[in-house]
């Protein structure tokens, strides 16, 4: 064993880090894991890796227009466009972070942040009392993924290949959960339809209720029905979250082989190191929350001044912004004949919204005192039901073609037209 000399790094620890280095350098050494990209390379990829990021110029315009109280259409448009690149960056940060965390944590991370824009916009609208915007934007996200994105993907893939195949068992498992989520929205609508109108209650029921001094007039009866609706919605939300956790285990652990394509590629190399991806995810989430808040705040005035139905804004416009990056990715995968990935993006994203985001917002509303229930208008419930029904019919054979894509897109356009005149 040699004795130390004047050149021996006495301050070197067991990990080989020289403590004579500047403090900032040592901090970077700690954060930079072995074999991972540098911070500079990470953020260069993050901000310059997609043409979507050119639209980040609209983020400061959104902030300026809001604080200077410009015209409602400008405030809405700037915030609307600003969320497109932010949604893309959220997806990029989530994907990069997932590559280093393993399958289970990756699945949980994608479940949490895969629909971060919908969650942020939903919470922002809920805190401002815009319950209808919350409901229509969530319903619109489901319909957008199931009909528009999946339809365009089938259409694009069908124009390049005469027929595309995908794993039917996994697709059926996903669509079955989607059907369950849809049914949980039908039940509150049926309850409301049967119980909300006092005139529809028979005399014997009214006599019984009055005999036990529960109600004295119709308004009290309506209050009871409203309370029942809240109980149904909150209980269902908790159960749906439980089912969603079970679905994650089913997808990631017990039956993971069903969700893997036969020609699945090798493990993708990360373009960002773990810490930089985490900071990027946190920062973009904060910026998105501000832009979402500005967007929601401008909806009311924009709808009134320019005669745009609020339902159309919530159901058609907002989901297109929130899912812009997913739209491009799904179609690109279809053009590569990777239909398992396309189904996973479209149906999987719809499941995240219906079985995770919607129940989560119901619970957030419960905690914050903003009543959000699973009761959607009868027309909206029927629209969702027939959409899920059509998707189930089309994917049950494990094959897709351009005609199936055309059917899905056509139904989406019919629904958009119906909500424009609603």
Automatic annotation (TrEMBL):
Keyword Phosphoprotein attributed: no
**Transmembrane segment boundaries:** 45-64, 76-93, 105-126, 138-159, 231-250, 277-299, 311-335, 341-367, 374-395, 401-421
Q: Does the keyword Transmembrane helix apply?
A: yes
Q: GO molecular function of the protein, one example?
A: calcium:proton antiporter activity
Record's bilayer topology term: Multi-pass membrane protein
Which InterPro entries does this one have?
A: CaH_exchang, CAX-like, NaCa_Exmemb, NCX_ion-bd_dom_sf
- Domain named Sodium/calcium exchanger membrane region: which ranges? 75-252, 280-420
Keyword annotations: Antiport, Calcium, Calcium transport, Ion transport, Membrane, Transmembrane, Transmembrane helix, Transport, Vacuole
GO annotations of cellular component type = endomembrane system; fungal-type vacuole membrane
Where does this polypeptide localize?
A: Endomembrane system; Vacuole membrane
Q: Which Gene3D superfamilies match?
A: NCX, central ion-binding region
- Please, one GO biological process term? intracellular calcium ion homeostasis
Its function, per the record, reads: Has a role in promoting intracellular calcium ion sequestration via the exchange of calcium ions for hydrogen ions across the vacuolar membrane. Involved also in manganese ion homeostasis via its uptake into the vacuole.
The family assignment reads: Belongs to the Ca(2+):cation antiporter (CaCA) (TC 2.A.19) family.
* Protein name according to UniProt: Vacuolar calcium ion transporter
Instruction: Record the organism.
Output: Cristinia sonorae
């Amino acid at each position: 064993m040699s004795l130390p000399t004047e050149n021996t790094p006495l301050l070197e620890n067991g990990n080989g880090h020289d403590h004579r280095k500047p403090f900032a350098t040592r901090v970077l050494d700690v954060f930079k894991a072995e074999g991972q990209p540098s911070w500079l390379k990470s953020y260069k990829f993050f901000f310059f890796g997609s043409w979507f990021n050119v639209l980040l110029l609209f983020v400061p315009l959104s902030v300026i227009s809001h604080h200077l109280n410009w015209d409602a259409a400008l405030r809405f448009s700037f915030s609307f466009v600003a969320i497109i690149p932010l949604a893309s960056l959220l997806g990029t940060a989530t994907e990069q972070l997932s590559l280093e965390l393993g399958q289970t944590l990756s699945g949980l991370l994608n479940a949490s942040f895969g629909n971060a824009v919908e969650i942020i916009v939903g919470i922002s609208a809920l805190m401002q009392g815009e319950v209808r915007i919350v409901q229509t934007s969530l319903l619109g996200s489901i319909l957008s993924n199931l009909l528009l994105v999946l339809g365009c993907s089938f259409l694009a893939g069908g124009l390049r290949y005469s027929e595309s195949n995908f794993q039917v068992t996994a697709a059926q498992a996903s669509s079955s959960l989607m059907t369950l989520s849809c049914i949980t929205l039908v039940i509150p609508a049926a309850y409301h339809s049967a119980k909300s109108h006092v005139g529809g209650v028979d005399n014997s029921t009214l006599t019984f209720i009055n005999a036990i001094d529960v109600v004295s007039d119709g308004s009290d009866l309506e209050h009871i029905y409203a309370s029942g609706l809240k109980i149904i919605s909150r209980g269902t939300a908790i159960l749906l979250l439980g089912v969603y956790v079970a679905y994650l285990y089913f997808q990631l652990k017990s039956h993971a082989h069903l969700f893997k394509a036969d020609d699945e590629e090798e493990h993708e190399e990360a373009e960002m190191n773990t810490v930089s991806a985490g900071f990027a995810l946190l920062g973009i989430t904060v910026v998105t929350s501000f832009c979402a808040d500005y967007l929601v705040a401008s909806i009311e005035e924009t709808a009134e001044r320019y005669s745009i139905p609020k339902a159309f804004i919530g159901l058609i416009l907002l989901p297109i912004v929130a899912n812009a990056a997913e739209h491009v990715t799904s179609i690109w995968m279809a053009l590569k004949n990777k239909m398992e990935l396309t189904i996973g993006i479209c149906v999987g994203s719809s499941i995240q919204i219906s079985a995770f985001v919607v129940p989560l917002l119901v619970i957030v509303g419960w905690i914050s005192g903003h009543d959000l229930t699973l009761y959607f208008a009868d027309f909206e419930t029927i629209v969702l039901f027939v959409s899920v029904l059509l998707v189930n019919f089309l994917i049950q054979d494990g094959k897709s073609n351009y005609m199936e894509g055309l059917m899905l897109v056509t139904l989406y356009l019919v629904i958009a037209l119906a909500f424009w005149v609603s």
